[in-house]
Amino acid sequence: MSQVAASILAHLMAVDAERQRRCQDAGLAHKVNALKAWQQARFAATHEDLLRDARYGPAARFFLDDLYGPQDFAQRDAQFARIVPALVRLFPAEVVETVEALAALHALSESLDSQMATHLADGPIDAGGYGVCWRNTGRREQRFAQLEMALGLGRRLEKLTRKPLLRHSLRLMRGPARAAGLEALQNFLERGFDAFATMGRADHFLAQIEARERQLMTQLFSGVSSATTVP
Question: Considering the entire predicted model, what is its pTM?
Answer without folding.
Answer: 0.86
